[in-house]
Amino acid sequence: MDFPLVVPALVRRARTLFGHRPVSGRRPDRSIARTTYASVLERTRRLSTALAGLGVAPGDRVATLAWASQEHLEAYLAIPSIGAVLHTLNLRLHPDDLAYIVNDARDRILIVDESLLPLFEKFRAQTTTIEQVVVIPSAAAGSDAGDARDVTANTGAPAHGFLDYEALLASADLSAHLEPVIREDDAAVLCYTSGTTGRPKGVLYSHRSIVLHSFSQGIADSLGIGERDVLLPIVPMFHVNAWGLPFTGVLFGAGQVLPGRYLDGASVLDLIVRERVTLTAGVPTVWLAMLQELDKNPGGHDLSALRTIAIGGSAAPASMIRAYQERHHLRIVHAWGMTEVTPLGTVCNLPAGLEAAPLDEQVRYRARQGKPLPFVEVRGVADGVEVPWDGQTMGELEVRGPWVARQYYNVEGHDSRFSDDGWFRTGDVVLIHPDGCVELTDRAKDLVKSGGEWISSVALENALMAHPAVAEAAVVAVPHPTWDERPLAVVVLRAGAQATADDLREFLAPSFAKWWLPDRIEFAVEIPRTSVGKFRKSVLREQYKGLYADD
Ligand code: ADP
Description:
The chain is α/β, with parallel strands linked by helices. It folds into 3 domains: 7-205, 3-Layer(aba) Sandwich (Rossmann fold); 263-443, Rossmann fold; 447-543, 2-Layer Sandwich (GMP Synthetase, Chain A, domain 3), CATH 3.30.300. The protein has 17 helices and 26 strands. Helix 1 crosses helix 10 and helix 8 (207-216) packs across helix 10 (245-252). The chain is globular. The protein starts with 6 loop residues before the first helix and ends in an 8-residue tail after the last helix. The structure holds adenosine-5'-diphosphate. The site of adenosine-5'-diphosphate (ADP) has 23 residues, from strand 14, strand 20 and strand 21.
């Protein structure tokens, strides 16, 4: 049967099977709103119809500038359901970058949180394509304040062209609802890379890639997501589709908890407890923060529902994986992905036999990035030659598969990140173990080249973060007159804890060759972060580039 794998099929399934499953979210005033898929999907239908009524046609881009919320989930589903393309804008980017991205994408409509209108005003004048702005009110959906409010009251923005989200839904003429023909290769979503390594580039996800990617998150050796789950993506909905979890939740009927703008350790912990979350996902910095909360009051939180904390986006330090498992009996599942891979490519689950192994061995395995998901293929390449899967030879990770991008959106000519024989060059340097488990040593541009040899910044960071006095550590290469580059460690100590650079070097010494040890360790109050919470190493490289200038 020629059955297209399209987002509306996900929505139909949830509508027929999962209407009773819960969707909850933290509102701007911190209160928690609870509803069900039945209500979300009814409102989704209204939004689809209303957008079509505004003239949105298949292929048109509709942007969102919003925190994780019920309305954002509605937009995720409604926009691809009429063949249009959902384009989530990263609200932590600089306004100039946002303007560039909106124009590059040619977004026609913007759906924006009321609280983010001041941000929109900062780049609105630079945008040339937006015709209509739909404002999601800050007050709870359906409340009196929400219905009656003037959407521009707090911002001073002119009302012309601004529509109220709730009023728009109410105005939808459901009798006019059309179901456009959508092919599975049509674009459903447009995401931009967060620009850690340069100007943001757009990546289009087809309906098929989203459906298959969602499917892959349900299988046991991936995240095993099913109807019994309640998902809390901490990774924002404006960054690679919150790792695709909103779509996966709809496909399998998993409950969803949408955290709004409150992503600090205490708020996350509170939501996990209150909403009986079973699976949550985010970058390591979020889980380092939550670990500190848990350690303040061990056993003081009911986390009995929580079966998995999925971590990706940066390397999960082994010490953190161990701390969660040992002190709080929580299981970390490490995963690797990137914008060009929709994003999930590998997931690390313990192989047969290791569940019963000593904790050290388990943690060592769990700190790897994992095995490729079904249909994702991996290889490591060094000097144009594929490296052996021996767990020792480093190579650049290349991937291919049904949800790996074929090209960047709107980029002329051939991009060297795509190989001639159909693979995507990730820019990550890895070892592949004999069982196919991928271990990331570094981003190619973060490796430190000292005296002609490579030093892994990730390995040093992970080891430093295992020191009891260290809250966070980032290692970067700084130019050195003799050695070309040397590793510099920038360390944030835990509140009240003390350690000297010598203490830390002594701590590292047993695990590394002498020339790997950072000669310089700088202490800082915080490490600069990217828009999605990763360490922003480019800032540190710039800040410390003259460190050895006088040597
Ligand atoms: P950006 O490249 O702008 O940071 P992405 O979110 O696409 O945006 O980042 C993908 C990159 O994040 C990967 O290429 C890799 O370097 C890093 N990454 C993702 N997951 C992991 C992980 N589990 N361990 C180490 N690095 C990771």
